[in-house]
Amino acid sequence: MRRGAILQLTVLALIIGGLTTAVAVIPNWLPPTAAEQADRIDFVFWYVTIICIVIYAVVGAALVYSVWKFRVRPDDDADGPPIHGHTGLEIGWTAIPFGLVTSMAIISAIVLARNDHTGSNPLKVDITAQQFAWTFTYPQHDKLTTNILRLPVNRPTRFTLQALDVIHSFWVPEFGQKQDAVPGIRTHITVTPNKIGTYPIICTELCGLGHAVMRSTVIVMPQDKFTAWVNQSGKAVSGGGAAAGKAVFVSQGCGACHTLQAAKSTGKVGPDLDKLPDYAQQAGMPLEQFVRESIVDPEAYVEKGFPPNVMPPTFKSLPKAQLNALVKFLVDSSKAAK
Amino acid sequence: MLLFIASEVMLFGSFFTAYFFIRVVNGYPWPPEGFELPRYVAGVNTAILVTSSFTMHWALQSIRRGNRAGMQAGLVLTFLMGLTFLLTQVIEYARVGFAPHDNAFTTIFFSLTGLHGAHVFVGLTILLFMTIRAYRGHFSPEHHYGVELGGIYWHFVDIMWIVVYTTVYII
Amino acid sequence: MTEVATNGHGAHVEHAPAPPPTGLRRFTAPGWWRVLWMMPLFWGIGAGIVLLLRWYAAWDPLWEWNALVVVAFLTTMPIGFLAGLGAFDYWVHYALGGETLPEDHSGHGARSWKDYFRVNTDHKVIGIQYLVTTFSFFVIGGLAAMVVRAELAKPGMQITDNQGFNGLFTVHATLMIFLFVIPAFAGLANYVVPLMLGAPDMAFPRLNALSFWLLPIGGLMLVGSFLAPGGPPAAGWTGYATLSTHLPMGTLFFNMAVQWAGASSIMTALNFLVTIITMRAPGMTFWRMPLLVWANFTTSLLVVLATPFIAGSQFFVMFDRILHTHFFNPVGGGYALGYQHIFWFYSHPAVYIMVLPGFGIISEIIAVFARKPIFGYRLMALSMLAILVLGFSVWAHHMFVSGMADYLRVPMMITTLLIAVPTGVKVFNWLGTLWEGRIHFTTPMLWALGFISTFVIGGLSGVYLGAVPIDIHTSDTYFIVAHIHYVLFGGSFFTIMAGVYYWFPKMTGRMYNEALGKIHFWTTFIAFNLTFFPMHLIGTRGMPRRVADYAPQFADWNLFISICSFALGASIVIFFYNMIHSWKFGPKAPGNPWHALTLEWQVSSPPPVFNFDEIPQVIGSPYEYGVPGARHALLNGAKTHELEEVER
Ligand code: HEA
Ligand code: HEA
Ligand code: CUA
Ligand SMILES: [Cu+2]
């Protein structure tokens, strides 16, 4: 190869590499991180990005150079030089990519191992996913249950996930970590939040009708606030009365699918619960009996305009006290909404 | 034909994968309490099927040597033994005392033996056609490709059964 | 049990097709009239079997729709269709003890458009049948994507409801993968591979015809699923259990459609393998085969070994639904992740099934239009074999976040990343072929060069996904959607385009319009990148896939993407106009418009019914551009004389 060609190729590669680098740095590719794990993932991301920029620059330069230098007019009918290959080059472009991908694999494996490391005293949280709601339970705090996740900052949290019906997936973009919840098996991930704030929880595994709205929120707070919250909400659930019913409504994630003014929920997958009295009338049942039946045996009467088999049948296993509180809460608040 | 068999082996492979996941990965008890497999009946059945492979081989050897009657007898015997196997299997299904939808064990039991049963059925159909052709005198020492293919398939069905029998009934 | 069609040698008698039957005979002779009564008949047989069994086993209710749909509508009725059309005639004849008849080729060739609507055993007719069918399904799948994009133009719900949306992208992807990319490659190869090998036809012409006719069945099943109660299948093209075992009946249509398409591709693959192994022209050693043939050889091996697994996975889902078995239902001891392992054990190799034939096409085109021998021919073939082997050991990279055993992750990551090496070898060898070549910018070449530039992006995003930590963040986001389209649209689709333009003169005997072809390339290329590149960004920023509604922060980008996607759709109109118009009115094409060396170009366009008057004698590599005096093959009579000279 002539010296000139090498120079021109290098310039081209620099231009293309520069353009690709611009694409890589100008937009914000990754969400701001809020967990140690996300920081490490970002590191791998940028490491791979650098390698890819180099590779794309080389491929692009060779392509553009050939297209630019070796093009001929359509009526040219000469053949090119009969080059059949070059063993040295071929070994080179087998060995170099091999080395590069090996380095990626090593770095990834190290990061993976560190991201899975939980430390000796993690906060434990059990996640239950079902169509289309999240429930979070703190086994170390009297099985406190909520549907908005609250986490103390800078403490490793070990999540154990399970699903009641189909596969779901738990993802907080700012945490970088993601894990499927699978019916019949328990899965785990570790997150160490390191920035106070409020972030979305997204279900990323297609789980049916309400997949797109299967969202929740995680609030990362200082340890003392977290402790205060734990103590306070522990009381609310056991207290009984309207507060208890509302707590069950919230913790079971009913609001993900149903609208109910009293709980400030606006779900649209299932019927609007502020209209319960009307529905009961249509079904020809006393309100309380209707509400109870609809929770325990949802297919017994399905509201017009809504498909069957969407409401999970799993709520029949709610403890008696909670079920009663929930029914009372629904009856009272839907009457009030009218 | 061997490639086709390879494809068939992979189909069985996918069923065995399901078996493997349920039994090994999921640690499912095998067979679960209260379930009993008719090992001995199935053992006798296995013997019948294995013998039929020999008669099949005999049929093929006969036509190679130009012994048409030998081929016809071999094919008919093979066919009858295959049929016995299949009927025994059906009766076993009826008497086994559980159904595919009871639990994962019964699911796998029926699907593996059922998949194999379906193959026996296909094998029998091929044998039937070969027998018809044999009686019509279409095969000769030079032209007996059909018998050969039918034979390969039958041996495959046979070997597959030994694998199924071992994994489902014995271990 | 077909006999290999060996009568390629000697003079061919053109059998005139039998005169069309008239009167009542129309109902007994193979054809659409017979389909008319055979379909209901077989439906009845299927329904009868179901009812009889249920009655005998005293199951309640007797009339169970799920079972009826699977057996009567989706299994026996299509068999009735095939039987009516005459796909089984010969085998029935043989089985009942009739004489063996070698293919008499009376079915060869197509004299009018009607000949494309019957069971035709000519590989060239079948190739065109394949291509027309698959492009029809491409249009349907593409229009489904347009509705998807229209819905996504704004956050919130506008056009569809949730279930409708899930159904749309499921049908979109299933059509594109199982009824467009995979069979379109099979169609191109059907036309070209026997020609390239110097063979008169495929090894099993009747099987070939059958495997084609299974395709429209599978496709119509998917399209028809929109009529199923509860709507079309809506579990994504991956159809994960246990969602797929929970959803309405439409899922059954998906399960069965995949079975039919899968059966079709297994049969074709077997046919290719036997053809390539046994029907090469004299002198065509493995190391003299064009790379397209190599590509189809490796692809067919993948198909034969992997496809039974998807058949298995779909059977299990159906059993779980209809027989209430417990393959995946944890309540009875089933294992939900088992589905994913079995599915991906097929579907990862399937992505190479969808790209290796494309690699073959690109190799042909680049060598011809750079007027140079392929750089590192043997390494090109070997790297495909390497991809074949590695391809079977990476399936779990789709399951990094699924909760499978942790110890599988690192080994699967290593094998996944290693696949970049043989693929890279191919890319660099193409660049080596271009180097110092004399490059002609015809439309096929533009597509080939465009393919390299986009496929490398798709491959590199695959490398991101192969690195487990990055995959944990990006899995099931729009980053994946971007990867899918860069490899499948920028990869497979671009190569199909390249191949269709390249062989269009051979297939139709007419030239396409070069200017329109170039306009098509540039509009599609630009619109494609504008549509799919931003998807990487919204994906890493946090937009999950398979959602009809999304956070307002992604609204601007999605609107932009939707607008570009409509432009992309419109650009494809140019293609269809060019193809249809040129097929009718284009200027007549010479036998070898590209001055290519491979065998298919050495005969007239379109080739004679039996391809070669005399089987050619292969004497050298197919890519000896620029080598003085080199020849790939000797044709027609001159053979013995010239051969002597060469040997001397
Ligand atoms: C034609 C189809 C095709 C092809 C060829 C590929 C090729 C590759 N794919 Fe892709 N993939 C899909 C189709 C395809 N994929 C589809 C459809 C899905 C989604 C399925 C779904 O969930 O719906 C998917 C999903 C998918 C995932 C799962 C993501 C997830 O769901 O979480 C992963 C993870 O590893 C992956 C990786 C790869 C890799 C490493 C390659 C490699 O083969 C790429 C190799 C090529 C190159 C790397 C470029 C050229 C090389 C060089 C220039 C050499 C130098 C390079 C280096 C040193 C890096 N793919
Ligand atoms: C070969 C494969 C292939 C091809 C070619 C395409 C082509 C296109 N795809 Fe698709 N796609 C997949 C394979 C493919 N896709 C897969 C595997 C998935 C994953 C599904 C899953 O999650 O299960 C997917 C998912 C997918 C999604 C994500 C859905 C989601 O997750 O919510 C989107 C969204 O934008 C999309 C868009 C498009 C568009 C706009 C095109 C366009 O390129 C289409 C262009 C073609 C046409 C429009 C038809 C022909 C044109 C005409 C007849 C002209 C007239 C039309 C107009 C003028 C409008 N695709
Ligand atoms: Cu739950 Cu998606
Ligand atoms: Cu893959």
Task: Write up what this structure looks like.
The complex is a heterotrimer of chains A (338), B (171) and C (648). Chain A is α+β, with helices and mostly antiparallel strands. Chain A contains 8 helices and 12 strands. Helix content of chain A is 44%, strand content 17%. In chain A, the strands form 3 sheets. Chain A has a 5-stranded mixed beta sheet with strand order 3-2-1-5-8. Chain A has a 5-stranded mixed beta sheet with strand order 4-10-9-6-7, with helices on one face. In chain A, strands 11-12 form a two-stranded antiparallel ribbon. Chain A starts with a helix and ends with a helix. Chain B has 5 helices and no strands. Chain C is mainly α and 648 residues long. A two-stranded antiparallel sheet of chain C has the order 1-2. In chain C, helix 4 (123-152) runs antiparallel to helix 5 (162-197). The two termini of chain C are 44 Å apart. At the A-C interface, helix 2, helix 3, strand 7 and strand 9 of A face helix 5, helix 13, helix 14, helix 15 and helix 16 of C. The complex binds heme-A (2 copies), dinuclear copper ion and copper (II) ion. One heme-A is lined by residues 139, 142-143, 145-146, 148-149, 169-170, 172-173, 176-177, 180-181, 236-238, 481, 484-485, 488-489, 492-493, 531, 545-547, 565-566, 568-570, 572-573 of chain C.
Summarize the topology.
The complex is a heterotrimer of chains A (338), B (171) and C (648).
Chain A (H helix, E strand, L loop, with lengths): L2 H23 L10 H34 L17 H29 L7 E8 L2 E6 L5 E3 L2 E4 L4 E7 L4 E4 L6 E4 L5 E5 L5 E7 L11 E7 L1 H17 L1 H11 L7 E2 L4 E2 L9 H8 L3 H10 L23 H18 L1
Parallel strand pairs in A: 1-5, 4-10
Antiparallel strand pairs in A: 1-2, 2-3, 5-8, 6-7, 6-9, 9-10, 11-12
Chain B lengths: L1 H24 L13 H26 L3 H28 L8 H32 L9 H26 L1
Helix pairs in contact in B: 1-4, 1-5, 2-3, 2-5, 3-4, 4-5
Chain C lengths: L31 H25 L8 H21 L3 H7 L27 H30 L9 H36 L7 H20 L18 H4 L3 H29 L12 H32 L13 H18 L2 H15 L6 H15 L17 H10 L1 H15 L8 H24 L1 H7 L3 H31 L5 H28 L13 H31 L31 E2 L14 E2 L4 H9 L1
Antiparallel strand pairs in C: 1-2
Keywords:
heterotrimer, B: 171 residues, mainly alpha, C: 648 residues, globular, disordered N terminus, binds heme-A
Determine the number of helices of chain A (DSSP H or I, runs of at least 4 residues): 8
| Quaternary structure classification | heterotrimer
The helix fraction of chain A, in percent, is 40-55%
Q: How would you sum up the major sheet of chain B? A: none
| Separation, N- and C-terminal Cα atoms of chain A | 85 Å
Round the mean pLDDT of chain A to the nearest integer and report it: 86
Q: What ions, cofactors and ligands are bound?
A: heme-A, dinuclear copper ion, copper (II) ion
Low-pLDDT parts of chain B are: none
Shape call of chain A: elongated
- Distance between the terminal alpha carbons of chain B, to the nearest Å? 31 Å
Coarse shape of chain B:
elongated
Largest interface: A-C, 86 and 89 residues
Low-confidence stretches of chain A: none
Instruction: Look at the helices and sheets of chain B and give the structural class.
Output: mainly alpha
